[in-house]
Amino acid sequence: MILVYLIFLLIVIGIVFLVLGGVKKSKKLSIIGIIIFIIVIVLSICLAIRTSYEKKHEEENVLNKVNSNISNEEIAIEHYKNNLQEIPKELTVEEAIKRNFFVFDGVEEKVYNEERLKTFIENTKLDATNRISDEIIIVIYNIEGDPIIYDVGFDENTGYVLATDGTRIDISKTELGTSSNVPKEYLKVVVNTNFPKDYYDVIVEDTGFESHAIYLKSHSSEFNDVEIARYTY
Description:
Elements: H1 2-23, H2 27-68, H3 72-85, H4 93-98, E1 102-105, E2 110-112, H5 114-124, E3 134-141, E4 147-155, E5 159-165, E6 189-196, E7 200-208, E8 211-218, E9 226-232
Helix pairs in contact: 1-2
């Protein structure tokens, strides 16, 4: 603010010298007036640069403050929702395989990209020598050919996250259509983030009758096992 007043004062003084120089026909006074205006221009440029810097700095502070108020959980939820929403609504088995998703085709009763699931488990298991962050998308097609999509990720800092997208199921073609109590998870994307890294593993369990289940397995009585997906082959 002081710099603004100084510039304003110099402008007035410069005008006075230019006027006096013209009236008295004094070249010296006119030159002083011109010099004062040059100083005014330099000071104005400095003021503009400083104002721009302060504005940018203020915007960065506001942005940092906003970001600091966004929790890791909120960031994870947004990430997994975006991932699932970017997958085509009409997701064929062939397209899912091509994208390197772990796929169970319920119509043909075949499993694809099983190695991808094994790699994910090895990368993220609790007793891994070099436990690293990883993420996998699991697509389970029912006997009608409708997919449920699971996005499972592990982050070294936070733990496991499980996102479920059942929005592609055609309720009218399944037994769910016989009930008015259609589970919410079949109508929207659900993201769960409460799986601490120190207590959970992803495992595949043989449940008998050629049925397999993928679990988030808890290693503590504090937490429950969570079934991710089930398939037969």
